[in-house]
# Entry
Amino acid sequence: MSEPTIQKLFDLNGKTALVTGGTGYLGRHLTRGLAEAGAKVLVGSRDANRALIEANEIPVQGPSRHAGCQLDHMDTEAKLADDFNAAVIEHGPIDILVNNGNEHCSRDLTNCTADEFNRQLANATGYFLLARLLRNHAVHRGAPATVIMLGSMYGLVGSYPDTYEHIAHASPVAYHMLKGGILQMTRHLAVYWARDRIRVNALSPGPFPSSNFAPKVVERLCTKSPMKRMGQPYELKGAVVFLASDASSYMTGQNLVIDGGWTAW
# Structure
């Protein structure tokens, strides 16, 4: 058996990747990373027009054209199945699923209602349903597939109360619960689906604040990081390509943390 080169291991030519939340702050960079490695990218968004616009802005490396897909992971099970199957019919087999979409809840532990808490956790339900759709699709094809779940450093550790104090609400408790649950779901699905040649891993970003974050909160966050700075969205591209490609072919049920050393303290 010949040994594949490093270029071949990271090559995604001939693969199709569906990225939920593909028009978002981090999602836009995840889609570009996969496309730059050669994948055909399906940009998933609840807004079909935004998905199409974003898909048209992604660089094309090979003969395949990227596409936008109307898909909301918070939809009902039946609607998700219809939208996933429609994407397959229109664009062909899907090899890689990046569960990146997130419906945010800004309420913290002082004022989050039961309904808001449960709604935040429903993000994990959508991740599971889409992952199962991809698994069944791949098994039916007799092909391997890869699922990448977006976790967070806040699925591993608590936040520092003094980071947000007197400036913004605390990091939402439901978000911490959600991300911790996603990491455990990753492990569970990985061990059950390994026999089907379905790899399931998580990618957990550390602090990657958008421009909407209060500058004072960002300043405080920097003091908590060993690298004393925030992450730039493009710094996730290498990680997502690694998890999606054969470069990680013997890796499943794991969580790749890109956090500037935050969780190493």
In short: Strands lie at 16-19, 40-45, 67-70, 96-99, 145-150, 198-205, 255-258. Residues 26 and 244 are 16 Å apart (CA to CA).
